[in-house]
Amino acid sequence: MSPMRWTAVVTAAVALAVGGFLGLPHLLREDTGSTSTVQRAPDFNGDGRGDLVMPDHDGTVDGLNQAGYVAVAYGPKSGRTPKTQVITENSAGVPGRTGSHDYFGGSPVWWDLDDDGYTDLVVDAIGQTVGDILGAGRSTVLWGGPRGLSGGTVLAVGTRQGSTGQLVIGDFDGDGHQDVAARGLIAYGPVTRTGGAARTDRITLDTGEHEVDEAEEEYWETYDIAAGDVDGDGFTDLLAVASVDYDGEPGDALLLFLRGSSEGLKAPVTVIKGESEGRPDIGHDIETGDLDRDGYDDIVSADGTGRGSVKVVYGGETGPDPARIMTVDQKTPAVPGPETPAGFAESLAVGDVDGDGDLDVAVGDMYANVGKLKSASRVVVLKGDGSGKLTAPGAQSVHHALPGVPLRGTSFNARHLALLDTDFDGRAEIVVGTDPWSAHPDGYCVLPGTSKGITGAGSYCVAVPKPGRTS
User: 38-94 pLDDT, tens per residue?
Assistant: First the structure.
């Protein structure tokens, strides 16, 4: 079955990339309803090879600071250097005009939104001024075609800076069309080239369950959002990690659950509130996937504070279950050494690297020693066995010194991490950033997935290109 005919039930959370955001792929469910753990890279030009999205929402364009852009490395033929493309708001057919502090290109997500057989790309510009609203934000669809991405359509306009950020895709109203949610609004499909989204609604994460002194200033901070069918009812749900800050003092992290329905997303419900009632903090980065194969998507979180840990909140008929939380940290026997005092679980990605049908979890470990190199960056791949515990034997330590990785004089930057199937063989590759302070900065490496796990053999690295002058 063509991947363009699959229905998304979960979009992985985005992670910070070199100078921008690295877009993470979707876990997919076939029309038959069976869950697939294959995470497919986008194929914008329809050549049957996965493409790599490399955004820099902080990038300078035509001398304008933090204007932002997005680059694409089109899937290379074996042994060849990938062809790259840079898209800015000044590119032909893209709505708007490049401006300072637009932050164009952030939070990329993808799908064949117009059902023409080519993957389309959605990016945000969280600082875009729209009309009289400074920093309203705007999300834009860049359309795929036989020559790659070209042209664009405004998908949604925000109401404040950040409202269009942290994009995820799913069918939240169950009508068979993909919808695009952000931390402040949702654009419902079908999405067309001429009309954009069918409708848009605002998303409010405030549950009204907290008490605030009238003298205090209340500020909501949304750390991350993710999508998945956590209650198994066939509608994509939205999960959010947020906090209420009071007069500049950060509050406990909240895990919020917005249930999908035929009317769209319902009002948020707090599932976990920080350390209340002995429950562990959920962390700031989340993804979803059915780790225990029970038909309900589970929530995987990375908590990079202190020595760091990975937590799993299991899904069920009523949604995320706060009574069922599993924690994996560096002292867990399945986690390969060396143990580090900080930097573990600063990023994560969910996918099936060996093609056995069980979800694995890749964890960024920022400051592990790799050979004689101190405080280098590696990725720990926790092996899934269908139990959801992430403690199965066979975990891997993946780093720049693996045989076949074409890096010299530099290491990984594991804050910038994704798992996606770039060669469409049913196994996810690791996509990881490179050290921005090295001799080879601002790039990504792709390490293949095999039946035995991740390997450096056949890997390749791509530098993020810079935009030329367009005006």
Answer: 678 999 999 999 999 999 999 999 999 999 999 999 998 876 778 999 999 999 999
**Do 113 and 141 contact (CB within 8 A), yes or no?**
yes
Question: Which one, of 320, 300, 114, lies nearest residue 237 by Cα?
Answer: 320
CA dihedral 45, 74, 54, 413 (to 10 degrees): 150
Report helix, strand or coil for 107.
strand
Give the phi and the psi of residue 311 in degrees, each rounded to 5: -125, 150
The answer to whether residues 416 and 15 touch, using CB atoms and an 8 Å cutoff, is: yes
Where in the chain do CATH 2.130.10.130 domains reside?
Answer: 19-28+37-157+168-195
Long-range contacts of 338-342 (CB under 8 A, 24+ apart): 338/368, 338/369, 339/307, 340/307, 340/365, 340/366, 340/367, 340/368, 340/369, 341/307, 341/367, 342/306, 342/307, 342/308, 342/366, 342/367
**pTM (two decimals):** 0.90
Q: Phi first, then psi: give them for residue 5, nearest 5 degrees.
A: -100, 5
- Spatial separation of the C-alpha atoms in residues 104 and 98, rounded to whole Å: 8
CB 440 within 8 A of CB 410: yes
CATH topology of domain 19-28+37-157+168-195: Methylamine Dehydrogenase; Chain H (2.130.10)
Over residues 113-154, the pLDDT tens digits come to 999 999 999 999 999 988 888 888 999 999 999 999 999 999
